[in-house]
Every structure is written in C-alpha cells, then in structure tokens.
Amino acid sequence: MSKAKPSNLIGSHQDCTRQESLDSASIGALIDAPNLAAFQQQFGQYLRAQSQGDLHKVMSLKPSQPTVSSTPKPSEVISTRVATLYQSLVFNNICSFLNQCFPVCQTLVSTEHWLTICEQFFLHHGCHSPYFTEINQSFVGFLAEPNQSQALQVPLYFAELAHYEWVELLVETHVDMALDADDAMTTQLRLNSTLQNLHYQWPVHAIGVESRPDTHEDSFFLVYRNHEDRVEFMKTNALTYALIDFIKTQDSIAATMPAMTDLLTRFAAMLGQDNTDNNTDVLVSFGLPLLVQLSEKQVLFPSLKV
Length: 306
Hints:
mainly alpha; two-stranded antiparallel sheet; 50% helix; 7% strand
C-alpha cells in the first residue's frame, strides 16, 4: 500500500508565466473591510468552486457570520488571474494528498470519476483541522456520511476501503512511540499505544480491480507500529477483536500467567459463556497462546511466555 507523504502547499502553476500580486488599492480595500471574516469566508468559498455552477452554489450558502453589505467580493479585491491561480494551487494540493493515500480506491473508478469525487469533497466537506496530514482523515469521514455512496455513485464498500488505506498513515504518524521506557520495564500488561483494532463489514484487504465483492464479509485487523517504526498489518478474527477490546477496559493486569488466566476467565464471562470449567478451560487454552503471540508481535507488552 502506498503511504501518504506530506507535501508542500506552495506549488507552481504550469500556465503561469509571471507573478502577480495585490496592488496597494486592493490591499487597502482588504484591510479596511468592515467584516474581514466575511471576506475571508467568501474567498474560501471561491477557492472551493471549480466551475461557475459551483461558484454560484457556494456563494449562495448561508455564512457562519452575518455578511456586511460593504464587504468587498473576492473579484473586487483580487484579480481573476491571481484568484484562479490560488484556486488551482489549493485544489491540486488537496488532490495530491488524496492520490497518495488512496491508490486502490482510485483504481476502482475512472480518472474523471475520481476527480469528481475529489471536487465534491473540496466543495462540500468542512475540514476543521489545520494539519495537512489530517486532510485524508476528513476525506474518510466525507465518504462515510449517510447515503454518500449513492450520491457519489461508488460501491458500498468504498468508504471502508478508504478507511483501510488511510489507517496506515494514521499509525505511521501517531505521536506515541510503539515502545517507550515504561513499556520496556513494565510488569503490567499494556497494549501497543499505536494499535488500531479494526472491524470491517467488507473484505477490504482483498478488494481490487480484479476482486470486487458483492456481499458483506466481516474482516478484522490489528494495525500498529513495531519497535523499528514499521507499520504492521495483522489479520485476526472476531474473538481476538473482542479480546483486545476487553483488555482496553481493564485498569491493571499483571503480566503473569495466573493474571492472564484470570483475565481470560473474566473475558469468557463477559462473552456470556456458560460458567462451567470445560468452557472456561477451552477459552483459556485458546487465549494464553494468543496472548503470547500478540506479545511476540509487539501488539502487547511485555514479552510473555506460557
């Protein structure tokens, strides 16, 4: 899977042969605007629009703050050429992030269709984070909105596939280290701080141009960063998914076999298993080797041995 790498917002425009800037009169009009926020909002809406039709739509939207009648329009302050250049630069840079982060999604639709999806995201979705690396997270949220697959004319699994592609960037840029000094010395069971415990309704790992599912198929994954700062994907199952979620709810678990056995016994009770020795023994016999394997894979700390 291709990893999304941050790129610079400032770029070059191939059709631009000379640099233009605001003249002093335009700057004065901008500074003296009675409602600078209204102007900024209008200019932001202008940058979102990729056609005259889109421009009409966004300029007719109700602003978050009252618009002052004397607030200059973008076209009155900034020349059309400069405004169009900014519009192209911003949209192309947004697309560059999406193109790098969602390579499989792109292969499932035509180039024109993908560009339309990017335009709809750029035009209609509000991104509230100033960090470029979170643009892709906003795109995932955009695709997951109700009835979005029908509106964008994409497969029902498209949003989950996009999430599966994006989660690698999420883990790769996670602020925490997979293993810190406390983890290395701990006597308490801890989950890898970068761990993502995932459940999808579609086989997202198998989707591609030659493999497009028609029916739901649950799939489970652990995605995390290891000691070497590499992102790891581990395909799991429903029981492992539930066990990881159960461990998250526990305040303190000693990294010893008696404590692990007690943990699994309580996990069996949570699952609603019959309170018999046989059922508990079966789950413990399955769970102890699983916990050891998860520690070996650096999903859990510290290292465990049966």
